[in-house]
Write a structure and sequence with these properties.
Layout: E1 19-22, E2 27-32, E3 34-39, E4 47-49, E5 57-64, E6 67-73, E7 80-86, E8 98-100, E9 108-114, E10 119-124, E11 133-136, E12 152-157, E13 163-167, E14 171-174, E15 182-184, E16 194-199, E17 205-209, E18 214-217, E19 225-226, E20 239-245, E21 248-253, E22 258-262, E23 265-267, E24 274-275, E25 287-296, E26 299-306, E27 309-316, E28 319-324
């Protein structure tokens, strides 16, 4: 049995946690059906933040330029919109949400990605066409991507300010803040496609795939390498997320928690070092998001949002000790 982390008013197990954000000082935010916040040091409790009027749940959350951004969704129609509010105003009874109106109102936002000073918005049409996907800036204007791109799975920046857009089939880079993009072809023959992107620094990038492999480069895309297919259940598991945590690379999977990337090999977590992982609900869960906001009492922490709750891992020496919030 896994010992539960006993936190006052912990998040219910059945809540699906799709994305998390951290303000860099003292507050965590979670898109977990309702929009929730909690003090990073855990002295407080998880509290609901009022959504924009007429909207029923939050599917994504991010922080940029001292503003909290969310994707809010209506249950009745399924329509979605991006709203932002100053961080200083999130605890008001009804925050003063401001909607970002996209330049093309045929597109509905489905993901948001924070940059150093910008918010990038991935959006799609309700009906499948050759121009089903587009990306937008926080002022609603459109990024300079081609009109025929496939599904956007991540938008990220490197330390030099270059902007990368990963789709299910390609990787694009902009050296002019998103005004135009060039194609970086990772030459990866995988019909199931890419699922996420991690930019560690200017040189090291990682693309996860739905076939259980990671395509990566250590030389700014000049050459690419491919890992094994992570297949603890006999077939390659779809990889959902990827993060750098305390010097290691972790990949989230669908149906089998997370794995660890060691060089060019994706491995199951070491049973002696990843405490409370095996035999837990996390081990059998689909990982939807991972976030490593910093340290608590000098120990690095990582959060893993799943379809059935939120988990927190605390690094204690060489061990990563897990508990369910």
């Amino acid at each position: 049995a896994v010992e539960r982390i006993e936190l006052e008013n912990a998040m219910p197990n059945e809540i699906q946690v799709t994305r998390m954000a951290y303000d860099g000082s003292d507050t965590l935010f979670a898109a977990a059906s309702q929009l929730k916040m909690r003090e990073f040091n855990f002295d407080g409790t998880w509290e609901d933040i009022a959504l924009p009027e007429g909207y029923h749940y939050a599917s994504d959350v991010a922080i940029y330029n001292s503003r909290l951004a969310i994707i809010a969704v209506k249950n009745t129609s399924g329509s979605s919109a991006v709203f932002t509010v100053n961080l200083s105003g999130v605890e008001e009874t009804q925050p003063s949400w401001q909607e970002i109106e996209l330049a093309d109102d045929e597109y509905l936002p489905y993901a948001i990605y924070p940059g150093a000073s910008e918010l990038y918005i991935a959006a799609r049409k309700d009906t499948a066409t050759t121009d089903s996907y587009k990306a937008f800036f926080s002022d609603g204007s459109q990024l300079g991507l081609a009109s025929s791109i496939r599904q956007i799975v991540c938008i990220a920046e490197d330390p030099s300010g270059n902007v990368y857009t990963a789709t299910s089939t390609k990787l694009y880079r902009s050296t002019n803040a998103g005004s135009s993009f060039t194609t970086l072809d990772p030459s990866f023959d995988d019909y199931r496609g890419f699922s996420n992107l991690l930019i560690v620094n200017d040189d090291n990038w990682y693309l996860t795939s739905k076939s259980g492999k990671v395509r990566y480069t250590n030389d700014t895309g000049s050459s690419w390498n491919t890992t094994n297919a992570y297949a603890p259940l006999g077939a390659g598991l779809s990889l959902s997320s990827i993060i750098e945590f305390d010097g290691d690379i972790y990949v989230g999977t669908l149906n089998r928690g997370y794995a660890v990337l060691d060089g060019d090999t994706i491995e199951e977590p070491d049973r002696t070092l990843h405490v409370n992982f095996y035999g837990s609900d996390l081990y059998n869960s689909s990982v939807l998001t991972m976030m490593a906001p910093g340290t608590i009492e000098g120990k690095p922490v990582i959060f893993t949002g799943t379809a059935s709750g939120l988990w927190r891992g605390t690094k204690d020496g060489s061990k990563l000790i897990w508990g369910q919030e």
